[in-house]
């Protein structure tokens, strides 16, 4: 792809969390912001070779390549620039990371509500743009930012149940847009095609089949299929403590691989289920779900449940992009 593929500058201001108050159609604000954020794909950078210009326009689009493999595989630099890692800790030298998330605006991260508290501490830190969380030798330029606000839907999260398992984190300072860091789009359409295998989940979770291992130090990606809701209804019918009304088609996305080997696991909570589009909006990931609960970490007939983001669009838009 070439820089000519990049979107042209519009009359809107990229990165400002305000929209025209006349915007009323459900999801229209999210769609507008998605197009704006796609402008971050191409950036002016210092020229690395002798040229008359001090800066050159560089295309930072990395098209994901996710073959149908057993389990996950490592992500390459810039492939999933919206990916966030959440942690608790009193200071930057003592952070305990525990969940994933998605950057959806320069100053907002979307995650699972049950990730807001870990080891009796509120999530305080967000790491963006990283690959290997235990190394400084990888090809990444991570940004560590502090959380200034935490938001849950008006309906809230019942501590014993996993309905409304979605949350927004406001960052104290905006993330710097780089080839490693830029927002994803929040997909407003509630219609997802069942048996579609074009969705990818990313995270630093345990990669051991059946669970019980350590979280991955390197960001992983794995392709999951959207499954009919009744598959998760059957799989979680005995989990009445977390889903007393069952898995709800309007509020959840059922996804997985029933033959086993591809799944989410511990520390993948809050991570995005998303698909990629190379056309307009150019080179953007679209988040359809937030990892909420999995049952067996890749064993057969063990799909996972994701919070469906489209049902929360009015709330997301009101918090992240309030009317001016």
From TrEMBL:
<dbReference type="InterPro" id="IPR001314">
    <property type="entry name" value="Peptidase_S1A"/>
</dbReference>
<dbReference type="Pfam" id="PF00089">
    <property type="entry name" value="Trypsin"/>
</dbReference>
<dbReference type="GO" id="GO:0004252">
    <property type="term" value="F:serine-type endopeptidase activity"/>
</dbReference>
<dbReference type="GO" id="GO:0006508">
    <property type="term" value="P:proteolysis"/>
</dbReference>
<dbReference type="InterPro" id="IPR001254">
    <property type="entry name" value="Trypsin_dom"/>
</dbReference>
<keyword id="KW-1015">Disulfide bond</keyword>
<dbReference type="InterPro" id="IPR018114">
    <property type="entry name" value="TRYPSIN_HIS"/>
</dbReference>
<dbReference type="InterPro" id="IPR043504">
    <property type="entry name" value="Peptidase_S1_PA_chymotrypsin"/>
</dbReference>
<dbReference type="InterPro" id="IPR009003">
    <property type="entry name" value="Peptidase_S1_PA"/>
</dbReference>
<feature type="domain" description="Peptidase S1">
    <location>
        <begin position="69"/>
        <end position="321"/>
    </location>
</feature>
<comment type="similarity">
    <text>Belongs to the peptidase S1 family. CLIP subfamily.</text>
</comment>
<protein>
    <submittedName>
        <fullName>Serine protease snake-like isoform X2</fullName>
    </submittedName>
</protein>
């Amino acid at each position: 792809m070439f820089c000519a593929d990049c979107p042209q500058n519009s009359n809107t201001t990229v990165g400002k969390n305000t929209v025209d108050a006349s915007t009323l159609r459900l999801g229209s604000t999210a769609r507008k912001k998605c197009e704006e954020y796609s402008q971050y794909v191409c950036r002016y950078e210092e020229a690395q070779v002798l040229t008359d210009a001090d800066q050159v326009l560089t295309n930072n689009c990395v098209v994901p390549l996710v073959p149908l493999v057993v389990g996950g595989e490592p992500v390459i630099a810039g492939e999933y620039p919206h990916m966030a890692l959440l942690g608790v800790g009193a200071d930057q030298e003592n952070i305990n990371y525990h969940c994933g998330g998605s950057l959806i605006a320069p100053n907002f991260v979307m995650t699972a509500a049950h990730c807001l508290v870990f080891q009796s501490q509120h999530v305080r830190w967000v790491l963006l743009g990283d690959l290997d969380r235990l190394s400084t030798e990888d090809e990444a330029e991570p940004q560590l930012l502090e959380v200034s606000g935490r938001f849950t839907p008006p309906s809230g999260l019942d501590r014993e149940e996993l309905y409304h398992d979605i949350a927004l984190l406001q960052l104290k300072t905006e993330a710097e847009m780089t080839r490693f860091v830029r927002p994803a789009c929040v997909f407003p359409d509630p219609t997802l095609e069942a048996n579609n295998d074009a969705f990818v989940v990313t995270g630093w979770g345990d990669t051991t089949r059946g669970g019980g291992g350590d979280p991955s130090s390197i960001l992983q990606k794995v392709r999951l299929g959207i499954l009919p809701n009744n598959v998760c209804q059957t799989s979680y019918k005995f989990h009445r403590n977390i889903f007393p009304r069952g898995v709800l088609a309007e509020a959840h996305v059922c996804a997985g691989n029933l033959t086993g080997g591809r799944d989410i696991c511990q520390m993948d909570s809050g991570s995005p289920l998303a698909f990629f589009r190379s056309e307009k909006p150019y080179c953007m990931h679209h988040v359809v779900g937030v990892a909420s609960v999995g049952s067996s970490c890749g064993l057969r007939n063990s799909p996972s449940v994701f919070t469906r983001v489209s049902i929360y669009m009015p709330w997301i838009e009101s918090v992240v992009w309030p009317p001016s």
